[in-house]
Amino acid sequence: SARLMVPRGQGNIFFTGATASLRGGSGFAAFASAKFGLRAVAQSMARELGPKNIHVAHLIIDSGVDTAWVRQRREDLWGKEALNNPDLLMPPASVAASYWQLYQQPRSAWTFELEIRPFGEKW
Predict the structure, then answer these.
(1) Selected residue with higher pLDDT from 123 and 21
(2) pTM of the model as a whole
(3) Domains plus CATH for the chain?
């Protein structure tokens, strides 16, 4: 994508990370190493491409996103009660709004990293 954006002199490249981008968790070594690496790639690209007017950002989603697959997985693991709290999963529209916020930022105030979570997610 960057190869096409550089000649145009503009563009946006957004990466999706998870809490594992910042800290590993027990049983998640492979996932954490991949997300750590993704964050490092995004940082390097931001430094290289920012001066070329290409906004590179990394969005950390500290929650499950409320999709049918995630709901079913939670129910299978923890039972129907796991779906009782509407504040534990993030609506896809909320995630999209965060990406839209990044997209609309002026070059003079670009954000590299944005961390989002629903109200009910523990810090």
Answers:
(1) 21
(2) 0.86
(3) 2-63+97-116 (3.40.50.720)
